[in-house]
# Entry
Amino acid sequence: MSEPIGVAVVGAGYWGPNLVRNIQASPRMRLRWLCDLDAERARAVVGPYSTVRTTSSLDDVLGDADVTAVAVATPAATHAEVALRALDAGKHLLVEKPLASSSAEGAKLVDAAEERGLVLMCDHTYCYTPAVTKIRELVHGGELGDIHYVDSVRINLGLIQRDVDVLWDLAPHDLSILDFILPPGVVPQAVSAQGADPIGAGRACVAYLTLSLTGGAIAHAHVNWLSPTKVRTTIVGGSRRTLVWDDLNPAQRLTIHDRGVDLSSAENLGDEARYDRMISYRSGDMVAPALLEREALASVMTEWADAISEGRAARTDGRAGLRVLDILEAASRSLEYYGATVPLRVDR
Ligand SMILES: NC(=O)c1ccc[n+]([C@@H]2O[C@H](COP(=O)([O-])OP(=O)(O)OC[C@H]3O[C@@H](n4cnc5c(N)ncnc54)[C@H](O)[C@@H]3O)[C@@H](O)[C@H]2O)c1
# Structure
């Protein structure tokens, strides 16, 4: 067993302590520093008897040769600055979602990490849940057939953020999941987004985002801070089966339905006959696959440690973070133009 990787966490607000807990639980890592502009907060998180040092200065962290890797859990607007300084100091990175506050900043991070041969992982936490891992396995393994649509709903009475709208707050989850589960060759090509701010918060609190995917499939995400009920569902419709993920139903989080609509091939039919082609409904079994119970952040830490020690890209690397930023930026543009369709880069 090699030496544990020396790690520092920057940002001890709401999410940072979750990283701290999982790094401390990992036998592969040793937490050396917790840094926050508010040093008191950092001290309170590690507690009075901890050997983990706390500081309000990033220089203390970056100047420590025993720190090999840095996890950034500061607000998104500060990710690029903190992460670039860490890359300049030769540290591997785990950056919270969204990777940065613009795709230009995200691209700078990706380039800097690649030039230096350092791991840049984006904490797309949901991709490491047993449910999403299983969904990816099923989609990539062809269990669902060709993907026809992905429909996700992420709504609840949410904290109205001061710096970002509901798209930038919640949709990174749906977009990172989509990026992770879509089979090779199926990518978003264009986005259109509509939103509303019915309470006068100064930013969209409800938004609907529609993506056209290669091959004629479609993906939709509904994100909402104003819903009195909490819903977290994603439906992945395929030509063979349809999968329903209800994240709030632990007894039956995933179900796979052998139910759907089949259309007999219209290839050899004339235009007239196309209207008469046969439609048949399948009504087969529904199965609920068993899922492991494991905290996603524990798997995030394992993947980060493996990527660092094997010198390879993480499963949700900087480029995955960048693809999400590209869509968010295009969606914001679409929002300004009342849902106009904005084409996406497909070269990331
Ligand atoms: N992966 C997930 O599921 C998930 C969930 C929640 C939040 N997040 C992400 O985590 C990040 C932090 O969110 P949060 O809700 O914890 O924010 P927060 O405001 O609660 O905490 C941020 C902390 O960072 C500190 N900070 C700010 N700038 C700093 C700097 N330059 N150096 C050191 N410390 C600095 C602040 O003092 C604060 O304590 C965001 O990017 C957010 O999107 C991810």
